[in-house]
Amino acid sequence: MRLSTAQIYDQQMRGISSSQASWLKVGEQLSSGKRVVNPSDDPVAAAQAVVLGQAQAQTSQYSTARGFATTNISQEETNLQQVTSVVQQAQTLVVAAANGTLSDDDRASYAQQLTAVRDQLLNLANTTDGNGRYMFAGYKTDTAPFTQDANGDVTYVGGTTAITQKVDASRTMTTNHTGDQVFMSLTSNPTVEPDGSASESNIFTTLNTAINSLNTPLQDADDTTKDAASAALDKTNRGLKNSLNNVLKVRSELGTQLSELDNLDAKGDDTKVNQTTQMSNLVDVDYTGAISSYTMQQTALQASYKVFSDMSGMSLFQMNT
């Protein structure tokens, strides 16, 4: 079989083109740091990298979600810490106001102080976060969750569903409790009334019971009226104790969730490191091997150039001239 000069030329050019493509490919890997630049470079690794990339994106999303959850829970805990102090202040005032030797003016003074405490508590219940959203309104974050009428009676008008956040593949937690869960609920074992009736769950109603009683003059009152005033303060004491226990229960839940978020963050960091390592093993270039291959491909290309140059000089046309 005879080979024409054109065939030999084409064969040599294909060889050079192949060597040059291989050399440039390794150079691309070195410059990009990636062994798999296109799916055709390693179809199996490329497919696995797509799946792993989705897992990495999910891990990042959960990390961001935990950041939001931590912020919201921390803000609620800070607010409830103030609520706890206010309720304890109210307890101190009610105990002091129960002194039977106080004058009507003294009682009225305590009523005024408790009114200020109630208003302070209402302000905390209607507090907003850094974005202007009401903290205890559930999903109705654009409207104040508590309203107060002219008589001082406070009503909850916020949402009935607490805000939750999915912080891991299998974990969803409450990041903002509703106002009725905090200020109008009791624990599973509250102190009941002496007659066995249900305890008052609305902390604002509890405070109003004491305020109304202290605003009632007792100087010329009969024993029945005085006994009723004393019973009202006793009921307020029980109510405040029950409400405080409920607030502390919510705070305990918040503290547990903050601890859990720390653990989930640590787990997420480990997962992120493992995923990054797996991705690197799939698509990143081995610089030692790539540099060696680059040098070999460069040598092969130079050899191809040399062979082509030598073969070109062996043309019959060259020999006949």
UniProtKB/TrEMBL annotation:
<dbReference type="GO" id="GO:0005198">
    <property type="term" value="F:structural molecule activity"/>
</dbReference>
<comment type="similarity">
    <text>Belongs to the bacterial flagellin family.</text>
</comment>
<keyword id="KW-0966">Cell projection</keyword>
<dbReference type="GO" id="GO:0071973">
    <property type="term" value="P:bacterial-type flagellum-dependent cell motility"/>
</dbReference>
<feature type="domain" description="Flagellin C-terminal">
    <location>
        <begin position="242"/>
        <end position="314"/>
    </location>
</feature>
<dbReference type="InterPro" id="IPR013384">
    <property type="entry name" value="Flagell_FlgL"/>
</dbReference>
<dbReference type="GO" id="GO:0009424">
    <property type="term" value="C:bacterial-type flagellum hook"/>
</dbReference>
<protein>
    <submittedName>
        <fullName>Flagellar hook protein FlgL</fullName>
    </submittedName>
</protein>
<keyword id="KW-0969">Cilium</keyword>
<keyword id="KW-0964">Secreted</keyword>
<dbReference type="InterPro" id="IPR046358">
    <property type="entry name" value="Flagellin_C"/>
</dbReference>
<dbReference type="GO" id="GO:0005576">
    <property type="term" value="C:extracellular region"/>
</dbReference>
<dbReference type="InterPro" id="IPR001492">
    <property type="entry name" value="Flagellin"/>
</dbReference>
<dbReference type="Pfam" id="PF00700">
    <property type="entry name" value="Flagellin_C"/>
</dbReference>
<keyword id="KW-0975">Bacterial flagellum</keyword>
<keyword id="KW-0282">Flagellum</keyword>
<feature type="domain" description="Flagellin N-terminal">
    <location>
        <begin position="4"/>
        <end position="141"/>
    </location>
</feature>
<dbReference type="InterPro" id="IPR001029">
    <property type="entry name" value="Flagellin_N"/>
</dbReference>
<dbReference type="Pfam" id="PF00669">
    <property type="entry name" value="Flagellin_N"/>
</dbReference>
